[in-house]
């Protein structure tokens, strides 16, 4: 469809790692019926047969990412940032359009589903296997993962006894243990205490050096400006701006104000 | 339009030049099977963990794996053996009933948990990349873990009620292998169907209950006195077929001819192949729901 644009922030000779070509993603939801036209109707409306509604989460996004870039993806809640990340990770297949990538990009989230009834230890093993590590690799990295998460003795307890922060830290530690050519980070820096944030920021920097390209979704403009070279602003499923991170963040902040 | 299928778009050519791969394309069935095999450690760990997780909540822990079928056998034994006594029962009724109930529970577990295989694991599906078939296969594996102690219990019951231990008992193995193939196919179909139409999950309890009553768990179909045509139809029911095949192994009274084994093989192959293909064809859709 559209000609992929070379980012102004990237050196012209840098190798492309991700090409996002006119990507549309639609979700079908069975959540609500017709929109109520007045407040009275809203109150009166009996639960009727639910209708399938289509939500356009992404409406034709195109860009190219290059080696050595770290790209901050910004936008308000529900703008389609996380959908874009999942599409780049190959987890959500676009309804239209295509994503091309170097290897399989890894999505580093804090939402990685683990089993709450099981101990942290079993979850580390399960999470590592889910990421595609071999049992030997996991045994080799187990200590490192547990130390990184900083959950100490609690690793023997079921995850449902963990605080929200502890659970998120362990998930992040598992996800960050593998290295990938393209890395997608979703709000991961927002979890945990100051010490853990420092550790995770450092780990992301390391991963970026090994990875080549990093995408970061965050609501913290400070984090985006510090860690990213390029900014992509997604607004209601469309690409609103793409350029040097400071320019894009400034434009976004101006629109919010 | 999708790029790169008939005439490559500029972006597709650009990506190809840079050596990039197209993501989210469904692999061919053989390649898919290979990916599934590569993830066997994940599959085993997931099944084991879930199985343990479901039981570890209780004081008795994994003890429930044995206690639950025992209590079930006692309850159904009292209801159908004492309260609802009838002339449709075969002679050695208790082991007949126990085997029927346990084998049926295995099937019902695969059907019901299979229908939730994707929908209850959306978190995993949305964050991790692996062949989605891992989830329905894991569901069946968990049911196999639950079935093993049940079959042990059934064997004990058969011995206690005077069934002789013979080489025929080995027939239980092929019977359960065939049934597992069938159940896997059912789990594949249920997993995908529920994803498209969530309402399927609401219908399943009724399907399960219907099969419970028509499958000759607590009566012998031959003794009901159905018209020959109806009896023939009732005997084609796959759940009925597999229950009879397992009973053939443990109970001297029950005999299965070659045609019943042929039916068992037929149902197993049709369900497994059809189910696997049906599930695989929607591989791209599972992350979008």
Give an overview of the whole structure.
The complex is a heterodimer of chains A (257) and B (289). In chain A, 35% of the residues lie in helices and 26% in strands. By secondary structure, chain A is an alpha/beta fold. Chain A has two domains: 1-17 and 65-91 and 180-257, Rossmann fold (3-Layer(aba) Sandwich); 113-178, no CATH class. In chain A, a hairpin with a 2-residue loop joins strand 8 (230-235) and strand 9. The two termini of chain A are 35 Å apart. Chain B has 289 residues and is mainly α. Chain B has one domain. In chain B, 69% of the residues lie in helices and 1% in strands. In chain B, helix 4 crosses helix 7. Chains A and B meet through strand 1, helix 2, strand 4 and helix 3 of A and helix 1, strand 1, helix 3 and helix 6 of B.
Radius of gyration of chain B: 22 Å
User: What is the tally of beta strands of chain A?
Assistant: 9
Strand content of chain B: under 5%
CATH domain class name of the largest domain in chain A: Alpha Beta
Q: What is the beta-strand fraction of chain A?
A: 25-35%
Determine the structural class of chain B based on helices, strands and strand pairing.
mainly alpha
Task: Write down the domain tally of chain A.
Answer: 2
> Any guess at the CATH architecture of the largest domain in chain A?
3-Layer(aba) Sandwich
Assembly type of the chains comes to heterodimer
Helix percent of chain B reads 55-70%
* Class per helix and strand makeup of chain A: alpha/beta
Tell me briefly what this model is.
Chain A has 257 residues and is of the alpha/beta class.
């Amino acid at each position: 469809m559209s000609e992929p644009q070379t980012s102004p922030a990237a050196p012209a000779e840098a190798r492309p790692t991700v090409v996002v070509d006119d990507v549309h993603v639609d979700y079908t939801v069975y959540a609500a019926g017709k929109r109520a036209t007045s407040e009275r109707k809203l109150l009166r409306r009996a639960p009727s047969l639910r209708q399938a509604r289509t939500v356009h989460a992404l409406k034709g996004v195109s860009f190219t990412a290059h080696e050595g870039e770290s790209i901050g993806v910004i936008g308000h809640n529900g703008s389609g940032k996380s959908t874009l990340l999942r599409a780049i990770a190959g987890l959500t297949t676009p309804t239209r359009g295509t994503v091309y990538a170097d290897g399989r990009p890894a999505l580093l989230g804090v939402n990685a589903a683990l089993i709450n009834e099981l101990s942290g230890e079993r979850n580390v093993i399960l999470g590592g296997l889910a990421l595609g590590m071999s049992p030997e690799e996991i045994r080799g990295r187990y200590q490192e993962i547990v130390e990184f998460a900083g959950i100490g003795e609690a690793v023997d307890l079921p995850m449902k006894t963990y605080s929200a922060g502890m659970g998120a830290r362990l998930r992040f530690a598992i996800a960050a243990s593998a290295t990938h050519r393209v890395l997608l980070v979703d709000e991961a820096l927002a979890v945990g205490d100051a010490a853990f944030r420092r550790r995770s920021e450092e780990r992301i920097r390391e991963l970026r050096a090994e990875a080549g390209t990093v995408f970061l979704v965050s609501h913290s403009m400070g984090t985006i400006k510090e860690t990213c070279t390029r900014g992509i602003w997604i607004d209601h499923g469309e690409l609103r701006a793409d350029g040097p991170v400071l320019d894009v963040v400034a434009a976004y902040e101006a629109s919010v104000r | 339009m999708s790029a790169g299928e008939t005439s490559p778009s500029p972006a597709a050519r650009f990506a190809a030049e840079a050596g990039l791969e197209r993501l989210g394309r469904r692999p061919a069935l053989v390649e898919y099977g290979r990916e599934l095999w590569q993830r066997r450690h994940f599959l085993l760990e997931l099944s084991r963990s879930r199985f343990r997780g479901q039981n570890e909540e209780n004081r008795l822990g994994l003890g429930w794996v044995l206690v639950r079928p025992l209590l079930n056998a006692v309850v159904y034994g009292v209801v159908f053996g004492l309260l609802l006594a009838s002339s449709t029962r075969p002679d050695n009724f208790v082991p007949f009933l126990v085997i029927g109930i346990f084998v049926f529970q295995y099937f019902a577990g695969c059907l019901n948990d299979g229908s939730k295989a994707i929908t209850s694991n959306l978190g995993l599906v949305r964050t991790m990349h692996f062949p989605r078939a891992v989830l329905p296969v894991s569901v069946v594996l968990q049911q196999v873990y639950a079935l093993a102690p049940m079959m042990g219990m059934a064997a004990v019951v058969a011995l206690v009620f005077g069934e002789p231990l013979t080489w025929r008992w080995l027939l239980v193995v092929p019977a359960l292998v065939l049934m597992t193939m069938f159940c896997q196919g059912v789990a594949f179909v249920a997993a995908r169907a529920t994803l498209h139409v969530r309402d399927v999950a609401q219908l399943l309890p009724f399907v399960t209950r219907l099969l419970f009553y028509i499958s000759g768990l607590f009566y012998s179909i031959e003794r009901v006195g159905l018209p020959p045509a109806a009896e023939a139809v009732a005997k084609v029911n796959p759940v009925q077929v597999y229950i009879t095949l397992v009973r053939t192994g443990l109970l001297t009274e029950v005999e299965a001819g070659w045609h019943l084994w042929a039916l068992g093989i037929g149902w197993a192959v049709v369900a497994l192949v059809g189910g696997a293909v049906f599930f695989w064809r929607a591989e791209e859709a599972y992350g979008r729901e």
